Amino acid sequence: MDLSQAYRWISPDQSLPPVFTPENVEEARQWLREKDRPQRRVLVAGAGSHWYIGANPQPVTDVLSLRRWDRVTDYSPGDMIVEVEAGCTLGRLEQTLSQEGQFLPFLPFSSPQATIGGVVAAGLESPFSGELGGPRDSIIGVEVLHSDGMLSHAGGKVVKNVAGYDLCKLYCGSLGTLGVLTRLAFKVRPLRGRPATALVGFGTASQLLETARKLRDHAAPAALEILSGKLCRAAPEALSTATWMLAARLADAPGAAAYKRRQIESQAASAVWLEGRDEETFWQDWTQSRRAMLAPDRPQACLLVSTPLSRLGDLLEDLSGTFGGEEGAPAISGSFPRSRLHAFFSERPDSEQRVERLRQRWNRREDSTILWKGSPKLKSKLDVWGLPSPLKKIHNQLQAALDPDRVFNPGRL
């Protein structure tokens, strides 16, 4: 995505500030030192793919683009470790790993043009994250550029290298507010066999959740994704009338895959299996549907809801009731094992009130409701993150220690 177009997420009525695109980290360090003045504010940019996430940033004076930091700097397939520059695109990284039959669990189905630094900074996950983990579970080393030009390191290129608090995880989901990720190291996983996906349709959320628990316990699929019908245009005709779907994806060695397939069929006899090109098309369509709803010119907003599994059914019912009606069932996707849902809904004049009503009903310590995507106008009316005061205090203390002048991505968290 062009940065000028991506900037519409942040400020629809203003043009993109000056963009500095250094060739390497040393150039960026010198530039930051030259820009060392109280009023400087810097927006960090990879591909601009995830600028829709977070609160409305404060005005910035400059944009720091990492698009030239795009190398895979070290890859050891035997040790299953890869090190990359933060501006490396997901397409390049996935191509490198796939040549050796390996992958990162949180990358599949992401935009090939997005950068690995942006994905980690945004804390993004894929359907595989439920069983195999997200960025926090794969990252083992980071290099970080701070606002005074200093470089810091945490972790390294070996899996068991942490004593005490793992600072690598601190930067996952920080949206660049604690420093600029410049280099990252990950442990990777092997690809085993050909993937296959079982789709099961349901009329009610309670039926879906009952089956999801059985499949999790008996088959432990690599992905167990909850999907509403609006996100399943490529689903087989036999499931076209389903309100909800469960997508269980297997990515195992042939023997294990055969066993898990039998377990799924014993618990969900109506499952429709997708393999080969049909399976690939299904997940591509799911990905494209989500991306379309996250486009700057689309009126859809999105809530990210996290809750204990015991309350997931209540949340699905609440979301359907709040954002249903004339719109029909909302477009929802989410990881059952992680108990996280993305709920897309059309923005209306009463969107602020509808979100606040949900938060009031879900006002429990274990629940989290984030306005994942919304117009700048809607974000200006809401507390985007909805965090309890203790968590806000912790983040403010971290930012005061790592970026005391609030130079990077001010206001996003």
| Beta strands, count | 18
Q: Kindly report how far apart the N and C termini lie.
A: 23 Å
Tell me about the biggest sheet? 8 strands, antiparallel
Low-confidence stretches: none
Class based on secondary structure composition and strand pairing: alpha+beta
Q: Characterize the overall form.
A: globular
Biggest sheet: strand arrangement: 14-11-13-12-16-17-15-18
Strand content: 15-25%
* Average pLDDT, all residues: 87
Number of helices: 14
Summarize the amount of helix as a percent range: 25-40%
Rg to the nearest angstrom? 21 Å
Brief synopsis:
With 413 residues, the chain is an alpha+beta fold. 32% of the residues lie in helices and 23% in strands.
Structural write-up:
The protein has 413 residues and is of the alpha+beta class. Helices cover 32% and strands 23% of the residues. It has an 8-stranded antiparallel sheet, with helices on both faces. A hairpin with a 4-residue loop joins strand 4 and strand 5. The chain is globular, with a radius of gyration of 21 Å. The model has no long low-confidence stretch (mean pLDDT 87).
Core attributes:
413 residues; 14 helices; single chain; alpha+beta; 5-stranded antiparallel sheet
Topology:
Blueprint lengths: L2 H4 L12 E2 L4 H10 L7 E4 L16 E4 L6 E5 L4 E5 L4 H9 L3 E2 L12 H7 L6 H4 L2 H4 E7 L5 E5 L11 H4 L9 E8 L1 E2 L5 E7 L2 H15 L3 E6 L15 E7 L3 H14 L4 E4 H18 L6 E7 L5 H12 L7 E5 L4 E7 L4 H11 L6 E6 L2 H6 L7 H14 L11
